[in-house]
Specification:
Layout lengths: L29 H12 L2 H4 L1 H9 L3 H25 L5 H10 L1 H37 L5 H18 L4 H26 L14 H14 L19 H30 L16 H10 L1 H35 L18 H17 L2 H29 L17 H17 L1 H25 L6 H10 L1 H16 L6 E2 L1 H10 L12 H10 L7 E2 H6 L9
Helix pairs in contact: 1-8, 1-10, 3-9, 4-9, 4-10, 4-14, 4-15, 5-6, 5-14, 6-7, 6-12, 6-13, 6-14, 6-16, 7-12, 7-13, 8-10, 8-11, 8-12, 9-15, 11-12, 12-13, 14-15, 14-16, 14-17, 17-18, 18-19
Length: about 550
């Protein structure tokens, strides 16, 4: 039997899971991928988290960012491979739902939705902290929660009205933020203000290492946006090359920025400067950084830039989170109303409203540290699942020939094993919060599937089912391989095949011993033999039940 997945079958049977329009213009090059990825990554990881990380491990907080990046790399590489095979909007949820099926899709969809809405909520916490600095300057005062909720209402309305230009605005804002932080960093070094002896990690005992691992898990949310660009894989030129290279380049740039800037913050801000009057970690470390270097005016300017950055991040965050609800509704896992697009503004307004409501609940009921931990925990789970997805689909590829990635994650399966083990280790170090988050997402997702999705989703043969059956019942796996090929050829989803579709399915299964372009007669004979009533189509189920009676040339 010839190998499956031959390039000449792509146009017939190897249709991608999400059909990408021929008119979709691939215009984003490597530089654009890097910029988009960096824009989605830089934010609360520099403007809020450094003080929380400092409270955990002191001067070694910068090292936690480096360790977190090492855990992100396997997930990023795995997601790059998946995205190069399925260049479609929807990102991680789409990959997981297609590979593991609707039940796991429901659970992970809820987890990913929660991760992005919590990250957006975390950005609003930072927004309110920096706004308090500006309010003090101008003599106005509102509570942190009031300002955060007020901004949540505004960004929700903006999302509903449509923000087609948000990326155009977000990129320069992030560029200004990074430039400001780099200027402060260089200024502090040149002026001699930075004492890097303060930024020395303490790793003398097992408890020190455990604390460092827990902090790495905490700050991992800083890299949540690095693979977000995979969701627009259909717009990237040469995605098999530019997508993984862009993601890895932005990740390297990001980790260097995080490590250098956070280390410099620690070298400049005195120990007591990282806590407020109540002894809690401050939520505006960039303000403290600027104030130590250049005084109150610089602190005010830094706070204004931070407000713009946090607003931009929360604006994009609620947009991204709502799209998970939209995608799940599109797949029949949530009510159709969440897929409804506003007639005038062309946005999924109900999905946005529900996301905003849950963000408000998180802001009112969860403290800042827990918000960061929950967001990071869900993100770690997503990276672990990306690694597991590659292992599963690669094993099941003979039965799912649509999987034709333009990029192969390097050092497979060792890269994926490392990502799974390191991710699970960080989740264990996070302790109770991660467990609560995982169990809650699983329960909610399971309940949604049992109560709604089970009755409305489209039944498909998933790579995970094939993977499982290959080990428990090889004969059944072969039947599923054939079934998958025939249903992939059934482009109209009628459970019938015409001659051309039948030949495509048979070729994908490897039943063409001769050069098809020159000798197609044998497969035509098999088709006509199966077409009992001579109407030019065959029923898939009936044909497969007779498969053993047909001489396929094996």
């Amino acid at each position: 039997m010839t190998p499956l997945g031959q390039k000449d079958l792509v146009g017939i049977v190897l249709t991608p899971i999400e059909v990408v329009s021929d008119t979709l213009e691939r215009k984003l090059g490597l530089f654009s991928v890097v910029i988009i990825s960096l824009s989605a990554m830089i934010g609360s990881g520099l403007f809020v988290l450094p003080s929380l990380a400092y409270a955990e491990v002191g001067g070694g907080a910068w090292l936690a960012y480096v360790l977190a990046a090492l855990v992100v790399i396997p997930g990023a590489l795995s997601k790059s491979e998946l995205a190069s095979a399925m260049p479609t909007s929807g990102g991680s949820y789409v990959f997981l739902e297609r590979i593991f099926g609707p039940l796991v899709g429901s659970m992970t969809g809820v987890a990913l939705w929660a991760s992005f809405l919590l990250k957006a909520a975390f950005a609003l916490i930072g927004f309110s902290a920096y706004l308090a600095v500006v309010q003090a300057e101008f003599g106005t005062e509102y509570t942190d929660i009031a300002t955060a909720l007020g901004m949540l209402v505004i960004i929700s309305i903006v999302n509903i009205l449509g923000i087609k230009k948000v990326k155009v605005v977000q990129t320069p804002i992030v560029a200004i933020s990074v430039l400001m932080l780099l200027v402060l960093t260089v200024w502090s070094i040149v002026s001699g203000e930075a004492d890097f002896s303060r930024a020395t990690p303490t790793l003398d005992t097992q408890d020190d290492w455990m604390a460092m691992g827990e902090t790495a898990a905490l700050v991992l949310v800083s890299y949540a946006g690095v693979t977000k660009v995979a969701a627009i894989g259909g717009e990237i030129k040469d995605p098999g090359k530019n997508l993984p290279e862009g993601i890895m380049t932005s990740l390297v740039i990001g980790v260097v920025l995080y490590a250098v800037i956070v280390a410099t913050m620690i070298a400049v801000i005195p120990e007591e400067g990282f806590v407020d009057a109540s002894g809690h970690p401050i939520e505006d470390p960039v303000r403290a950084f600027a104030q130590e270097i250049a005084g109150n005016d610089a602190a005010l300017l830094a706070s204004i830039v931070a407000i713009l950055t946090m607003t931009s991040m929360s604006l994009a965050g609620i947009l991204a989170a709502s799209r998970y609800l939209f995608a799940m509704a599109r797949d029949g896992l949530l009510p159709e109303s969440l897929e409804d697009v506003h007639g005038r503004f062309e946005t999924p307004h109900l999905a946005i409203i529900l996301t905003a409501i849950m963000m408000a609940v998180a802001l009112v009921t969860i403290d800042v540290h827990a918000v960061a931990e929950y967001a990071s925990g869900f993100q770690i789970m997503a990276y672990v699942m990306m690694c597991l997805s590659v292992l599963v689909i690669r094993k099941a590829m003979p039965s799912h020939a649509w999987y034709q990635p333009e990029y192969d994650a390097p050092l497979r399966p060792f890269t994926q094993f490392f990502g799974i083990v390191s991710g699970i280790s960080l989740l264990w170090l996070m302790g109770t919060e991660a467990g609560i988050g995982a169990v809650t997402a699983a329960i909610v997702g399971f309940a949604i599937f049992q109560s709604y999705g089970r009755k409305h989703h489209n039944i498909e043969i998933t790579p995970w089912e094939t993977f499982r059956i290959m080990f428990t019942n090889p004969d059944a796996a072969e039947h599923r391989r054939r079934l998958a090929a025939f249903h992939a050829a059934d482009l109209e989803s009628t459970n019938h095949l015409n001659l051309r579709e039948f030949i495509g399915a048979m070729r994908a299964l490897g039943y063409d011993k001769q050069d098809f372009s020159k000798r197609s007669r044998p497969l035509r004979d098999y088709f006509h033999a199966a077409d009992d009533d001579g109407d030019g189509i065959i029923d898939i189920d009936e044909f497969l039940s007779k498969a053993q009676e047909i001489n396929t040339g094996d």
